[in-house]
Amino acid sequence: MRQPDIEIYLKDADRAAIGAWLTAALNAPCAWQQKGRVWRCNCANIPVVLFEKAVGAWHSLLLESADTPWANDAQCAQAAAAYLQVNVRCAPGSWQEADGVNDADNWLQAKADGQLETITWHTA
């Protein structure tokens, strides 16, 4: 099932490199514009938001559309990790606050070699 949006967390990734990856993956340019503490672009008619250092050294990347090449966060995380050669984390599913806190610290981590592992990540 396709997720309505994609959110991943990239460790120590450079904004220019993230833009280059998005440009290659979406086959459209990504020109960042700063709005407060976040950077935004519209790439292939997909609104993209980058919040640098959202959690420590981890940058939050949100693609606000279901019309991406990836059906879910995990596929996107693996693609980003392979291209950028950084660790990338994402939620294992479409968790929402209403789901409770029991599984809130369960995450997936994609490594540059394509391996996907389940981790515990305390973000609070």
What percentage of amino acids are in beta strands? 35-45%
Radius of gyration from the alpha-carbon trace, in angstroms = 14 Å
Low-confidence stretches: none
How would you classify the helix and strand content by structural class? alpha+beta
Strand order of the largest sheet: 2-3-4-5-1-6-7-8
Would you mind describing this structure in some detail?
Helix content is 19%, strand content 35%. It is an alpha+beta fold. The chain starts with 5 loop residues before the first strand and ends with a strand. The protein is built from 2 helices and 8 strands. The chain has one domain. Strands 2-3-4-5-1-6-7-8 form an 8-stranded antiparallel beta sheet. It is globular. A hairpin with a 2-residue loop joins strand 4 (46-55) and strand 5 (58-63). The longest helix is centred in the first third of the chain and has 12 residues, at 15-26.
